[in-house]
Amino acid sequence: MKFLLIVFVIFVALIASYPFWNQTEQSDALTGLPWQIEILPDGSTKVFALHLGYSRLSDAVKTLGDDVEVAVIAASDEVGKLEMYFRSYRVGLLSGKIILTTDASEQSIKQWRDNAIKADYVPTGRAKKYILSENDIATALEEKITGLTFIPSVNLDEEIIRARFGEPDKREQSDGVIHFLYINKGLDIALYDDSKEVLQYVVPKVAY
Fold first, then answer.
1. How far apart are CA 140 and CA 56, in angstroms?
2. Distance CA 169, CA 163 (A)
3. pLDDT score recorded for residue 93
4. CA distance 119 to 27
């Protein structure tokens, strides 16, 4: 009985991670996959068809779809950050959530907060989400994308990460999380013991 249970658990894990393991020609022909990171001559990168530090939020809408939420996320002691949230991103069998961040000015963020049509606490209760007005969204869409977070719907492990993204430049572990750092790609993959994995992309320092 224990043997059958172990086999079942392994089978479920393989099915859950299949989108990351699938090596078929059809999968290889797809674009917009999280491990497809293009390093450009100036050291900057493109991922999910977005050029970090250059593409604007409006480009993301054209590329990833318009089922988005644009808001300022701010803790009580912070001015906040402008974010664009894609509830559902899918390419082939792979799906997940995407969050885009910008370096919008404090003046703009304060204005968007003042004009917000709605403000609610995020699920953690540690910050508030200010939903931008329609007029302010038009302005916010011109902000450049400086960071991208991808939260895959499937579960990852160290073997899958190394197989798809290659050997990391650094591997750091602390407090129930392992970080796989790909410095030239501007990528940090956080593998948690008890929560979803998070892939964070930023403009590599070599591009500054």
1. 9
2. 14
3. 84
4. 41
